[in-house]
Write a structure and sequence with these properties.
The protein has 873 residues and is an alpha+beta fold. It contains 27 helices and ten strands. 21% of the residues are buried.
Length: 873
C-alpha cells in the first residue's frame, strides 16, 4: 500500500470535512434568520409616499413563528402528563427524555429566530424619536399609528420570548425529574434481590420446572424448524448462498493477509519482529478474520427476517443469538490478533506459546458464558420461563464467569521483559490483578446473596470494557503504524516514495503527528458514546450531552458554545497556516534575493506575519462570539498595569516596529555596537540577532539599537573605504614613495578607480616617513582582503625599489663607568672580608685573600687585621 497516498487522502478528507462542517454551520445560521425578504414578508402594499417609514408588518413575527410559540408550551404539557404516567417504565421514560431533549432544541431554535427581531423594531422606534411632550408640536396621525404598530410588535416579540424562556426552564426541570426517575429505576433493578430464596429455586429448577422449561424451549424450536422445513428449497438456497459468500470472503481474506505479510517481511527466521511491525500485523489480522464471519452471519439473519422465516417467539431469541455471535466473532478475532498462538514471532505480547493458547481458550470461554447468559435472558423474556430457571441459570453463569476470571488472572505467563510488548504486558497484569480479584469476589458474593442482576451487570461491563479496550488499543497502534516515519524497511520505502512529492522525510513527521492526534481524537469521540451505552446511559442522555457540547450551554448570563470555540480555533489555525504559506510563497517568488533587497524582503515578511496573526486573532474572537469592544475596554483598563509591569517588553516591541518601518538597520547589515560587531541575521518583535565574525550569536534588545549609537557599515550601500598606513625610511625620496603607492593602489583588483585612490604624506615619524593609502572598494565586507592585497603590493614594490621599511630603533648611552667599576670592587672586598671574619671566629685558619683581577686595584692588606678589615679601601 502506498502510505504516502493514504496520508495525503486522509489529510485532504479531513480538510474537506472541516470545510463542509463550517459551511453547514453558516448555512444553518443563514437559514435560521427570521427576517423575510421584502417580497415575502410584506403583507400590505407599499405606500406611494416617498418618505413614508417602513411598515411594522415587514418585521413582525411570521405565522410559522407564531404557531411555534403556541405549539411548544402545549407539547410540554403533553410530555409532562406522559412522564407522570410512566413512573415505573424505564423504556417509556427513555423515550420521554428524548422527546424533551428534542423540545428544548426546538425552543432554542425559535428563540434564536426571535432574538434579532426586537433590536430591529427598537431601531425603527428610535428613528421615529420620542413622542412629543406637552406644549410641543404634535406629530401626524400616520406617525402615531406607525409608532403604535411598532410598539405592539415589540410587545408581542418580548412576550413570546419570555413565554418560550419559561417553557424552556420548565422543560429543563421536567428533564431533570425524568433523568432522576430513570436512574432510580436502574439502581432499584440492579440492587433488587431474587424473588425467592436461592436453594428452593435451584431445587425446583432441577426437579420439575427445569424440565418443563426445556420442553417449552424444544417446542418453540421445533415449531420454528417446521416453519423452515415448509420453505425447504428457499432455506437450502439461502444456506448455500451464505456458504458461498463466506468462502469467497475467506479466499479474499487469505490472499490479502498473505500479501500484507509478504510486504511486512515476515521471514521464517527465529528473530522476533519489531513491536511496530507486530502491531501492524495485529491491526490487519483482527478485522481480516472477523469480517467474513460477521458479513455472512448478518447476511443470513437479514435474509431470514426478509423472507419472513421467523415468528414472534423466535425473533427475540434470534436477535440475542446474532448479538452473541457478533460479540464472539469480534472477541475471537481480537484474541487471535493479539496472541497468535501458532506464530510467536508475530505475537503482539511477549508470552510463550503455551500461555498464549491458554489465555485464548479462557477468553473464548468467557465470551461463551456471557453469550449463554444473554440468550437465557432473552429466552426467559420471550418464553416466560419460570423464575426458578432464570435464577438458577443466572447464579451458575455468574459463578462460572467469576471462576474463569480468577483462572485467567492466575495463568502462568512466561514473558520476555526486555521487549516492549513484554514490559507492557507485565504492567497490565500487575495493574489488573487486584481489580480482577475484587470483581470476581464481588460477583460471587452478590450472586450468593441474591443480587443476580448486579452480578450479571458486572459481568457484562467486564466483557464490554475488555473488548472495547482491546479494540481501542489495536486501533491506536494501527494509527501509530500508519502515521509513523522511522527506519523500518516498509516505512523507509514509504518515506522514499514520499520524498519525491511534497510529503518528504522532513515534512512527513510534521504532518504525521497532527494526523495521529486527529485520528486518535476521532476514535475517542466514537469510543466514548459506546462506553456510555455499555454503562447503562440511554441514547437520549448521550444525544443530549452531545447537543449541549455542540450547540453550547449557559453559565449565568454567558452562552458557551464548544462547537463555535473549536471552529474559532480551527479558523485561527487555518489563517495562521495560510499566512505562513503566503509568506513562504512570496519569499520564493516576489521577495527572492535576486528581485528585492534582503532587508526590505525581511521587513515585508515580518509585517505579513504580524498582520496575519492579528487577522487570525480578530477573526477567531469574532466567530467565537466575543465582543471586540468589550475586549478593547478590558485592554484599556489593563493598559496602565501593563505599561508599568511590561514596560521594557513594550519598549522593545515598539522599537522592533520602528526598525522594520524606518529600516536604519536591515537584515544583512554590518553593524558595530559598542565592543561588538557583526552581521544582522534577524529582527524579531523583542530583539535583534547579530552574528559576530566568530560565528557567535549576539542578542540585543531592540531598544538599544534605537536609543544607542550604532555604526552601520552597509546602511545605504556596500561601498566603503580602506585606510592602509605605510612607513618608509628617512633615506627614501617622498615623491618616489607616493608614486609607488599610487601605482600599487591603482593596480589592486579590489580597489575602485572612481573615486581614485589617494596617497597622503601624514608626517615625520620617530623612525619613518609616514604615508597612508586611502582607497575605495565596492564591497566593504571584503575590507581585509583589500588591505592584504595593498600591503602585499607595497612590500614587493619597496623591495624592487630598494626602499627600506624601517622598524623602531633606540640608542642607549651609559655614563661614569669608572665610578661603577670602583663601587663593584669595594663590594667584592667587603664580601671577602666578611668571609675571613667568619672563618676566624670559627677557629679555622684564615685563608689568604684572592689575588685581584686585572680590572681591580691591588689590595694593600697583606695580613689579617680585624680593625682594618672592617673598612677596607
Amino acid at each position: 500500500m502506498n502510505w504516502t497516498r493514504l496520508r495525503v487522502i486522509t489529510i485532504v478528507g479531513l480538510v474537506l470535512t472541516l470545510c463542509a462542517v463550517s459551511h453547514a454551520v453558516n448555512v444553518g445560521a443563514a437559514d435560521a434568520q427570521p427576517f423575510n425578504t421584502p417580497a415575502q414578508a410584506t403583507s400590505e402594499p407599499p405606500s406611494s409616499a416617498p418618505n413614508q417609514p417602513a411598515s411594522a408588518a415587514t418585521i413582525r413575527m411570521s405565522d410559522e413563528l407564531a404557531r411555534d410559540v403556541q405549539r411548544l408550551p402545549l407539547q410540554l404539557q403533553r410530555l409532562t402528563h406522559a412522564a407522570e404516567r410512566l413512573v415505573n417504565d424505564p423504556l417509556g421514560l427513555t423515550a420521554t427524555q428524548a422527546d424533551i431533549e428534542a423540545l428544548r432544541a426546538d425552543i432554542s431554535i425559535v428563540l434564536g429566530n426571535l432574538a434579532p427581531i426586537g433590536p430591529r423594531i427598537d431601531a425603527q422606534i428610535s428613528r421615529l424619536g420620542p413622542p412629543p411632550k406637552d406644549g410641543e408640536r404634535a406629530e401626524s396621525d400616520e406617525i402615531k399609528a406607525e409608532r403604535a404598530k411598532l410598539n405592539t410588535a415589540l410587545t408581542d416579540i418580548e412576550g413570546a420570548t419570555k413565554r418560550l424562556q419559561l417553557t424552556d426552564e420548565r422543560a429543563a426541570q421536567l428533564l431533570a425529574r425524568v433523568q432522576g426517575r430513570r436512574r432510580a429505576l436502574v439502581t432499584r433493578n440492579l440492587l433488587s434481590r431474587a424473588s425467592e430464596p436461592l436453594v428452593p429455586a435451584i431445587g425446583r429448577a432441577v426437579s420439575n420446572e427445569g424440565r418443563t422449561a426445556l420442553r417449552q424451549f424444544q417446542t418453540v424450536i421445533g415449531t420454528w424448524f417446521g416453519q423452515l422445513a415448509a420453505s425447504g428449497l428457499i432455506v437450502l438456497l439461502l444456506i448455500v448462498l451464505t456458504g458461498v459468500l463466506y468462502g469467497a470472503l475467506v479466499h479474499v481474506r487469505d490472499a490479502w493477509v498473505q500479501r500484507r505479510f509478504e510486504s511486512l517481511g515476515t521471514s521464517d527466521d527465529d528473530e522476533p519482529l519489531s513491536f511496530l511491525r507486530r502491531t501492524k500485523i495485529a491491526a490487519f489480522i483482527a478485522p481480516a478474520f472477523a469480517a467474513p464471519r460477521l458479513i455472512a452471519g448478518v447476511f443470513l439473519t437479514v435474509c431470514i427476517v426478509a423472507l419472513d422465516l421467523t415468528n414472534w417467539q423466535i425473533t427475540p431469541i434470534l436477535a440475542a443469538l446474532l448479538t452473541v455471535f457478533a460479540t464472539y466473532v469480534v472477541v475471537a478475532a481480537l484474541a487471535r490478533a493479539v496472541l497468535l498462538p501458532a506464530q510467536p514471532r508475530m505475537r503482539l505480547v511477549g508470552v510463550d506459546s503455551v500461555s498464549a493458547a491458554r489465555i485464548s481458550l479462557i477468553v473464548h470461554l468467557l465470551t461463551l458464558v456471557w453469550g449463554i447468559d444473554h440468550v437465557v435472558v432473552a429466552s426467559g423474556q420471550a418464553l416466560s420461563l419460570p423464575d426458578s430457571v432464570v435464577i438458577t441459570s443466572a447464579l451458575l453463569i455468574n459463578l462460572a464467569f467469576a471462576t474463569l476470571l480468577v483462572v485467567l488472572i492466575n495463568t502462568p505467563v512466561e514473558r520476555a521483559e526486555a521487549t516492549e510488548g513484554g514490559r507492557l504486558l507485565g504492567r497490565i497484569l500487575s495493574w489488573l490483578k487486584i481489580p480482577t480479584y475484587a470483581t470476581a469476589i464481588g460477583v460471587v458474593v452478590a450472586s450468593m446473596l441474591g443480587y443476580l442482576a448486579l452480578g450479571r451487570f458486572v459481568m457484562s461491563q467486564v466483557m464490554l470494557l475488555a473488548t472495547g479496550g482491546l479494540a481501542v488499543f489495536l486501533i491506536h497502534r494501527a494509527i501509530a503504524a500508519v502515521t509513523s516515519f522511522d527506519d523500518e524497511p516498509d516505512v523507509a520505502a514509504a518515506s522514499a516514495s514520499a520524498s519525491a512529492s511534497w510529503l518528504d522525510a522532513v515534512r512527513g513527521p510534521r504532518v504525521a503527528r497532527p494526523l495521529a492526534w486527529i485520528l486518535n481524537g476521532l476514535m475517542f469521540l466514537i469510543a466514548v458514546p459506546i462506553l456510555l451505552l455499555s454503562w447503562g446511559f440511554s441514547s437520549a442522555d448521550i444525544a443530549g450531552w452531545t447537543r449541549t457540547l455542540i450547540f453550547g450551554f449557559e453559565v449565568g448570563q454567558i452562552h458557551i458554545s464548544p462547537a463555535r470555540i473549536l471552529l474559532a480555533v480551527a479558523i485561527f489555525v487555518g489563517l495562521i497556516l495560510a499566512t505562513r504559506l503566503i509568506q513562504r510563497w512570496m519569499k520564493t517568488s516576489w521577495l527572492a534575493p535576486q528581485r528585492v533587497d534582503p532587508g526590505l524582503a525581511h521587513s515585508i515578511h515580518q509585517f505579513m506575519g504580524y498582520a496575519g496573526v492579528a487577522l487570525a486573532v480578530l477573526a477567531a474572537i469574532s466567530y467565537a462570539g466575543l465582543d471586540v469592544t468589550n475586549i478593547a475596554i478590558i485592554a484599556g483598563a489593563l493598559s496602565v498595569g501593563i505599561g508599568f509591569g511590561l514596560q521594557s517588553i513594550v519598549n522593545n516591541f515598539v522599537s522592533g516596529l520602528i526598525l522594520l518601518v524606518e529600516r536604519p538597520i536591515k537584515v544583512g547589515d554590518w553593524i558595530v555596537v559598542g565592543d561588538h560587531q557583526g552581521h544582522v541575521r534577524r529582527i524579531s518583535v523583542r530583539s535583534t540577532e547579530i552574528e559576530t565574525f566568530d560565528r557567535a550569536s549576539l542578542i540585543l534588545p531592540n531598544s538599544e539599537l534605537i536609543s544607542g549609537t550604532v555604526q552601520n557599515w552597509t546602511h545605504r550601500n556596500t561601498l566603503g573605504r580602506v585606510v592602509v598606513p605605510v612607513g618608509a625610511s628617512y633615506d627614501a625620496n617622498p615623491d618616489q614613495v607616493i608614486a609607488i603607492l599610487r601605482e600599487v593602489a591603482e593596480n589592486c583588483p579590489s580597489v575602485l578607480q572612481h573615486p581614485a585612490p589617494f596617497i597622503a604624506f601624514e608626517g615625520l615619524g620617530a623612525s619613518s616617513l609616514d604615508f597612508t593609502v586611502r582607497a575605495y572598494i565596492p564591497n566593504v565586507n571584503s575590507m581585509l582582503s583589500a588591505k592584504t592585497e595593498i600591503l602585499l603590493g607595497v612590500v614587493k614594490a619597496f623591495r624592487d625599489a630598494d626602499i627600506e621599511i624601517p622598524f623602531p630603533q633606540q640608542d642607549i648611552h651609559l655614563r661614569d663607568l669608572d665610578g661603577i667599576r670602583s663601587a663593584m670592587t669595594r663590594a667584592t672586598l667587603e664580601r671577602r672580608a666578611a668571609e675571613l671574619i667568619k672563618s676566624a671566629a670559627g677557629g679555622a685558619p684564615a685563608s689568604a685573600p684572592a689575588e685581584p683581577t686585572g680590572d681591580q686595584p691591588p689590595s694593600r692588606v697583606t695580613e689579617f687585621d680585624p680593625a682594618r678589615a672592617k673598612s677596607p679601601r
